[in-house]
Structures are given as structure tokens and as C-alpha cells.
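Appendix B. Worked example

We walk through a single record from start to finish. Start with the input: the chain for M6 family metalloprotease domain-containing protein, Streptomyces coelicoflavus, length 432.
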Amino acid sequence: MQPHGQVQPPSRRIRPRRLTAAGTVAVLTLALSTSAGTGRLAPGTSTAGPGPAALSRTSAHGPCMISGGSEIQMSEGVPTSSGYARSTGTVRALTLMIDFSDAPGEGKALDRYAEFFPKTEEWFRTSSYGRLDYRPETPIRDWLRMPKSFAEYGIERGAPFEPGYRKLVQDLVAAADPKVDFRSYDLVNVLVTPNAGPSALDTVLSVTFAGNQEAPVADGVPVANASFVYSRQDDGSGSYDETGYRVLPHENGHVFGLPDLYTQEGGGAVGHWDIMSEDWGANNDLLGWHKWKLGWLDRTQVHCASAPGTTEYTLTPLARKGGDKLVVLPLSGTSGYAVELRTREGNDETVCRPGVLIYKVDADVDTGMGPVRVYDSERDSGGCTRSPNVHAELSDATFTEGETFKDPRKGVTIKVTGKDGTGDVGIRVTRK
Ligand SMILES: [Zn+2]
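Next comes the structure step. The output line below is what the pipeline stores for this chain.
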């Protein structure tokens, strides 16, 4: 048997620490440990269920369907490689609440569940324009006690699947199996009692093992896509009840094949423009690129600007259903620019400078290493947001009417030409 490992995104490692100095905007302090996964998705593996949704794509989109090398664990490439949970239609999320003898569940297990639902399925419904019908299910409504103590599993930040998580998943399957048919679900959420392990302010343990065909088998199917959520992401700002759930859509993003966009430098590459970049604090949406990757945009909503010449496009706000959402300018077989319109609506509650967001996507850069970089139209401005736990500098990164993005080396110019009464924005793309 070929030794091949699981896709393991680097552990989540954003650690916010509120500054105590009066009047200071809280900043993200980063706890750094790149724990690159030990393996990658083996070529040719596939799940029993359907893979990622068939993407809206035509031959006209071909040059924009960039892809990374096989050594990339989790790539921004389109289409997403097989093995992940599908991201359109009805997706059934088995949700288990677990506790341990040395960390017994406090309160009701269903109260733990209620920290994440219905907010998580609403978040997905909004972001996907109704294309992802996320159904959390709790066939076991009490705490599921694991046979070993939390300490015995050796779970810590960056812990690999072997051996601790394998043991935990095996035990979890054994404990749940009498009441659960694992074949019925597309993904698994494990909501760990929050008193197990350190505070999220110190160490974020929450992690997802995605596309993991080597996972223990339950009812004949591997537990291939599983998100584990630990202590509460409560930054003390009083917003936990509103925003604490957002770790779960982030972790589920991995289950659907999305990489981490934060890097060792934190949210400095993408800021608050995607939940895979920042999932603390105020709500945020996904990039248009991710929505395309997840199958939430029609082919008519994505334009591939690969040919030389000048073309005008009208972008509608990404948060609204319908209309043109994304213009992609491929630069090579592995990278391209993406252009979209971001406004303060839907899941994007902190947008303080509505406008055209321009970023580079590199399918050959791995999760956590900066596969997406947002261009800042207002460098060193300090940004326009005052929300805690939002990367401020990039919050005003958008280009507005009359502004132009230029990459002379690649012969690319993107000008924001105007805005109409409905909020749509025109752009003119020129390629030499
Ligand atoms: Zn992550």
C-alpha cells in the first residue's frame, strides 16, 4: 500500500489579544507555528459521494481555470480536486458534541450546538445565494463521552492526524455508531466541550482534516471531512454571541476544499475580505474566487479576460444574488488576477470603503502560505475600519471610481469607470 497522508491544513493560529491601552484598536497578535501537513491528497482518490460541485465553466473559462502542482496540499486551483465534501445542494452535516472525563461537558450539549446553529447554515445560505442548503443534524443530543481523558489524546495546536486524532476519531465512531449511520452525511462537525484544552485566546486548537481518505472508516465510509471546534473564540469584546460561531464556517470551508488565507503574518495578505483569512470578530464573506470554486456562481457571472484588448464589464455587488460577479485575468497556468465588487451587505458587515477589490490568486502556493494577495489601493493608510479583530490596513484596499490598478510588467490595467444608481460599478480592463 502506498504511504500517503491526509490533507491537513495547518492548524489555525490566529490569536487575538486585546491591547489594554485605552483607545487602542485591538490588533491580532499571532502565535506562529506552521505545521505543514504531512501529506497530500493522493491522486485519483475520490469520495463515495459526489465531489465538489460541477463548476460553471466553459471553454471560454479554460484559461482562467488555473491549477497548482500535485505537491500542493490545498490549492486555489479550479476546479477543486476530488475528495472534499460537495458544496452545493443539500449538504448534511453530522454534528456531535463530545466531552471527556477530565473535561466534562458543562451545561447541555444542545447549548453548545446552539452556539453555532442556526447561524452557520444562515451564513452559508447567504454567502451561496441559496445554493448550499446546509443541514446540521444531531442524532445524539447529549454529550458523547470519549473513553480516554482529553490529556491522553495528546491534542495540541498543530497536532497531526496520527496518532492522537486517529484515536479520537476511532473512539468517536465507536461511541456514535449505534445511533449514527455515517453514510448519511457529507461532513462531520465535532463540537468539543469548550473547557477541554486552552483558551482560544492563548491557543486556537480548532482544525479540519479534509479529503482524508486514510481516516477511520465508519459504516463503510472514511470519516474524510471532519471539523473540530474547541474553546470559544471570545475576545472579550462582547460580540461572542454574534460572531463566535464564525470559526465553524471557516473550518467547513476547508471541508469544501478552501485553503487558509492567513499566513504567518496573520491577516495581512487578504485582510477581512474572506472568512478563510479572518474568522474572529465581525462577520465577513468569501472572495468571489472562492464562490466560483465552490460552484456558487453561474458561468455567465464569471468572465475570463484572457485576450489582449480592452473590455468593459459591469460588476454587481458580490453579496447580492444575480449579475456579473467576477472578472479573472489569467497570468499563467497557475495564477491570475481576480476582480470583484464588495459592499456592506449580506455577510460583509465591516466593509467601510465599498469598491472594487483586486487580488492575485496563485494555485501553486499552498494553504497558509499566501495563495491570495489583495492589492491595497491606499497603502499605509491605516485603513478605514475600527472593528476589533479586523485587519485594518487592507480594509480600504478597494479601488473606487476613477482609480486605476496597473501592472505594467504584465501589461494589465484595470480602471474603475463609474457607478450607476443601482450600486453596480463599471470597470475597464486592458491587456497588452
Ligand atoms: Zn483554517
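Two observations about the output. Residues 1-53 have pLDDT under 50 and may be disordered. Helices lie at 109-114, 119-127, 150-153, 161-176, 240-243, 247-255, 288-293.
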